[in-house]
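Lecture notes, unit on protein representations.

Consider one protein chain, 114 amino acids long.
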Amino acid sequence: MTKLATKILLLGGLAGLAAAGAAGAAAASPVSGDAPALVVRFNADMLATDSGARALYRRLAQAAERVCPQPSESRLVRAVVVNCREQAIAGAVNKIHNQRLAAVHAAASSKSSG
C-alpha cells in the first residue's frame, strides 16, 4: 500500500503567529521562510469509506490545531486563529482532492458557520 502525505500549511504565515503572540511557535518555523507545516500521513484506502474520510478529516483538524497558534482571550486574535485553521484544513482537503473528504469538509464547515 502506498502512503500518501499532505502538509497542513499555516496560511496566515508569521503575521498570524505574531498577532497571536506565539513567540515560541515562530521559532518552529523552517529556516527557509516557509510557513510552518505538519505532515499528515494516511493510506489511500482510508478514503474508500465515509468513516475513513471522517477519520482523516479529524486528523487534519488536529494537525491544523497544532500548526496554527493557540487562541487567546482577544477576539481579534481568536478570529485569526480560527481563520488559520479553516484555511489550513481547506488547503489540505483541496490538495488531497477526494470527493468523500470534500463532503466531510463541507458538512463540517456548514455546522461551524451555522
